[in-house]
Write a sequence for this structure.
């Protein structure tokens, strides 16, 4: 009598919670994929622009001391290396976002804005709460994330990358930190952010000094989301 051993291997599959919606370009003509997650539409890539959407330039500050003493908007590549731009986008201090320091300008494409803490909360809640949302936002694998990249499924298509950040003029934590600014101010010196880590599926809400260099993700203005839906409905008649 033959004994047959059957080995059953689990097949990992994840419900897709993001929907591809098209493309949008910034003032520098960088093209971004648009994804819908719940009722919100987001860029699925970090911002790359060097200008506000009215064409006003934002300076590229490379020097550590100069960056650390800024009280106005600036950007840099991670490690000041242009090779990091294509995949990771740019790092911006919070003064780029603040309407007081930027003269009421907008760094996001027309019809888009830097998300508030409330915008981030809507996203977190839609993805099942903070304990699950981080994994659903992180890129899978270890091409940008350090091992073990816990819980990463990218089911939202958000493509969260571990770019790290710029603190006190220095570049740190690439591979284990993914951070994005919020428009929401916390104090005179700090503002809200959200962040992901390599060793957890949790999405955290925290605060950072306004001089810190972080990536920016843009969210579509609510009125423009509704307008887009109306146009699509009209095409069916």
């Amino acid at each position: 009598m033959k004994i047959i051993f059957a080995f059953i291997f689990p097949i990992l599959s994840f419900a897709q919670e993001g929907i591809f919606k098209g493309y949008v370009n910034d003032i520098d003509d960088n093209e971004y994929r648009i994804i819908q997650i719940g009722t919100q539409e987001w860029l699925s890539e970090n911002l790359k622009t060097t200008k506000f959407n009215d064409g006003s330039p934002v300076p590229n500050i490379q020097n550590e001391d100069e960056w650390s003493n800024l009280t106005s908007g600036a950007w840099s590549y991670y490690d000041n290396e242009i090779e990091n731009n294509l995949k990771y986008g740019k790092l911006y201090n919070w003064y780029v976002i603040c309407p007081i320091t930027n003269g009421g300008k907008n760094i996001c494409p027309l019809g888009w804005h830097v998300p508030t803490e409330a915008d981030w909360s809507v996203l977190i809640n839609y993805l099942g709460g903070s304990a699950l949302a981080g994994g659903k936002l992180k890129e899978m694998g270890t091409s940008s994330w350090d091992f073990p990249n816990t819980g990463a499924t990218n089911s939202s298509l958000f493509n969260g990358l571990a770019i790290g950040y710029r603190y006190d003029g220095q570049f740190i934590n690439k591979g284990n930190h993914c951070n994005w600014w919020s428009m929401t101010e916390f104090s005179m010196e700090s503002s809200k952010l959200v962040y992901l880590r390599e060793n957890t599926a949790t999405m955290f809400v925290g605060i950072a000094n306004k001089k810190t260099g972080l990536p920016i993700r843009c969210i579509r203005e609510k009125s423009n989301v509704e307008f887009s839906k109306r146009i699509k409905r009209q095409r069916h008649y």
User: Anything to note?
Assistant: The longest strand covers residues 177-185.
